[in-house]
Design brief:
single chain; alpha+beta; Nuclear Transport Factor 2, Chain: A; six-stranded mixed β-sheet; globular
């Protein structure tokens, strides 16, 4: 379980530092990513390249972003974390939010592992 926590922390550190290569260092080539908001999947990405391209695009939206892991919960092949999220927008968004506005959210992420590689990641808010 300690290995999983280190892998997840490496992902979070990469995210916070806008370092995509660090974020994906422990991903399996066939990673599946899902973003779930209000109980509905609003994005699914399959494969290393697709995730990396989306991560590069997402960097443009924030001048600052920071996730903090609050708790780890381990089960057989999965680890679920509770996160606090803080971000500052780098551009105006279609939903009316403006450059410089701050986002403060809580959520959870579920990481699924195989041979110390992340094979599935679900972000839930």
């Amino acid at each position: 379980m300690i290995d999983r926590e280190k892998i997840i922390q490496n992902y979070i550190d990469g995210y916070n530092q806008f370092d995509i290569d660090k974020m994906i260092a422990d991903f399996d080539d066939k990673i599946i990513f899902e973003n779930i908001q209000n109980g509905e999947v609003n994005m699914t990405l399959t494969g290393f390249a697709e995730f990396k391209n989306q991560a590069k695009e997402a960097k443009k939206y924030f001048s600052k972003r920071f996730q903090t892991v609050e708790t780890f919960r381990h089960s057989d092949s999965k680890t679920e974390i509770d996160i606090d999220y803080h971000g500052v927008l780098a551009m105006d968004l279609p939903n009316g939010m403006k450059t410089g506005e701050q986002l403060n959210l809580t959520g959870k992420s579920v990481f699924e592992f195989l041979d110390n590689k992340i094979i599935r990641l679900r972000d839930i808010s």
